[in-house]
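Friendly challenge for the regulars: who can give me the structure tokens for this chain first? No prize, just bragging rights.
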Amino acid sequence: MNAVREVAMSPSGSVATQVVALTAGALLVTSVLLVWRRDLSAQVRLLMLQGVALAALATTIGLSGGPGTSRAELLLVAVLVLALRGWLLPWVLGRRLRAGIEAGDAAREDGPRLNPTAGLVLVALLTTVAYLVSRPISEGVAEHTGAPTPAGTAGPAAFAVPVGIAMVLIGFLLLVGRRRAMSQLVGFLVLDNGIATVAFLTAAGVPFAVELGISSDVLLVVLILAVLSRRIHAQVGSTTLDSMTELRD
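First reply, four minutes later:
Bragging rights claimed.
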């Protein structure tokens, strides 16, 4: 919380606030585009951009860290976020996608449960819900930062807390609205990025050891699911979940 207070009150607070607003906007826009786009390669690239934006958010918080915050530790966390969420995880997904395409798997999300228009309408509704349910959190954070609340000029956390919650909801939407295993894996990572966004803004960053543990778990889950999807494609000939109903028996 000290870092957020510092962002709002330091001489460079206005610049930091603008950077936080821009990165939050980038996080939300990439999440919306992930619902709209069906091309899996485009989804991987958008996920990479989202990881870079999240790293920029962590860097901004790290550079404006207050007395109670280890600036070096926060910057190290930002580097870890950039390396894992901005490069390694998209690289793993891209490699698995190319291998699947070479094996005859489709390169697009075929027959999603929601068409793009319905998906974008639901995204608008979920974003509205996110802003409503996060209002007490935004007011609490703005109270600590000394920023006017709730409808006036909000503090930097007030920009990103609703965005983080919206990303969590959009991640759930991708999980239930897509049929391909790769798309659902992308939805899982959007959900995780949303949780990380909320953590960075409400807790003034995450300790390096905690972020390293979470990142290791996420990387392990992605690697396991990538291997499983490859095995399932080899056995069933597709990674569309509807074609795996026989596996229940």
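DSSP finds nine helices and no strands in the chain. The two ends are 51 Å apart (CA to CA). Your move, everyone else.
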